[in-house]
Design a protein that fits this description.
With about 140 residues, the protein is an alpha+beta fold. About 20% of the residues lie in helices and about 30% in strands. Strand 3 (about 65-70) and strand 4 (about 75-80) form a beta hairpin.
Length: about 140
């Protein structure tokens, strides 16, 4: 009986805790993101990029990757959990595996690879992609 009471008490305390605050973005990363979306308006999130070129990918930080799509549109992807070692010091690249689909989609796993040793040093998966586009006049 005492175990049940302790279990109920522990459950009660656990339900009172608040979720950890979302990670804050470093000033440099925030400035880079702002420069990409400046003058653009957020649109409803999409689950897949229509197409992308790896050269148009910009790593903002461990939680955010942007894809430029011409001069008037940027897709911002918020990762499902951080991509360890991405966006920090070192020679790291974000690699995705295209399995024959048309583009990159929510839930697809990306690996963070050390470009010198070719060793995987982290991984994560993509969340939704939020398009930012210049408004039409």
């Amino acid at each position: 009986m005492r175990r049940i009471a302790l279990l109920l008490l522990a459950t009660g305390f656990a339900s009172c805790t608040t979720a950890s605050p979302s990670p804050t973005r470093a000033a440099r990363s925030q400035a880079e993101l702002q420069s990409l979306i400046s003058g653009k308006v957020a649109q409803p999130a999409v689950s897949c990029l229509p197409s992308y070129n790896a050269n148009d990918m910009v790593v903002i930080d461990e939680n955010t990757v942007a894809f430029r799509s011409g001069p008037s549109r940027v897709y911002v992807a918020h990762m499902n959990g951080p991509c360890s070692n991405l966006g920090g010091a070192g020679n790291y690249a974000l690699l995705t595996l295209n399995t024959g689909g048309t583009g990159l989609c929510r839930g697809e796993i990306a690996r963070v690879v050390d470009t010198q040793s070719r060793i995987t040093v982290g991984s994560c998966s993509f969340g939704d992609f939020v398009p930012y586009a210049k408004p039409r006049n």
